[in-house]
Amino acid sequence: MVGLENKLKLYGFNNLTKTLSFNIYDVCYAKSEREQKDYIAYIDEQYNSDRLTKILCDITEMIGAHVLNISKQDYDPQGASVTLLISEESMPRHLTGSTPKDIESEIIQVRDSVVGHLDKSHVTVHTYPEYHPDNAIATFRVDIDVSTCGRVSPLKALDYLIGSFDSDIITIDYRVRGFTRDITGKKCYIDHAITSIQDFVDQNTLTKYDAIDINVYQANIFHTKMLIKEIELQNYLFNKDVYELPPKERLAITESLRREMIEIFTGANIYE
User: Fold this and answer.
1) Is 17-177+194-266 CATH 3.30.1180.10?
2) Catalytic residue selected from 49, 121, 147, 256
3) What is the pTM of this model?
4) The one catalytic residue among 122, 149, 153, 192
């Protein structure tokens, strides 16, 4: 596979737009209404807008882009959103407008400069904590979208994204749109080799998941879904020790968790 660092010699600017959509679900067993609400509050605190901002800034650095602007919001009763405007190259600081506070201002102080094409490069994240009122299953969904133009590609950040969350189900979409031209004037519709998104995920990570691909190579559209193979029940119990539960209840909870994951993975209500 040709690496992303092997760049084409282009005529003018690289006009390709590369978009990565990264979606994960974390599933948890919280039996009582109190436990469910406590789980939502815990998730809301663990993944508040400040922490999500840090994750997105790390992603931006990994793919070799620069932060131009940050907008973040925590929601009531739960959830958070963060949007970063990013760029491939740099420009003088005085052209970037107003300076945000806190972590955003620290980023601005350490960067040399930042740059254009503001309407096509961005990173966003949204969180969706929720719980089922009847079956004691709570879920936490994270949607992250990374859209870049030019040479940089969001695929470099995949392993970091997977490791940043407790990911039971992962759905990844990657698409390259538009075209650019090489120095001979020939149109190029993709500037790196790719056969599967899985090629950009660490092999040790892949062994933990069942993964399937749905790819449309002619359109440069790539889709991968991953489902965790093993359920270690203790990791899915909220504020409860697995040894407090009798064996039959452990089996029933494990089965309930697995059914929930399979339905989310397949996108169908199989067990109703």
Assistant:
1) no
2) 121
3) 0.79
4) 149
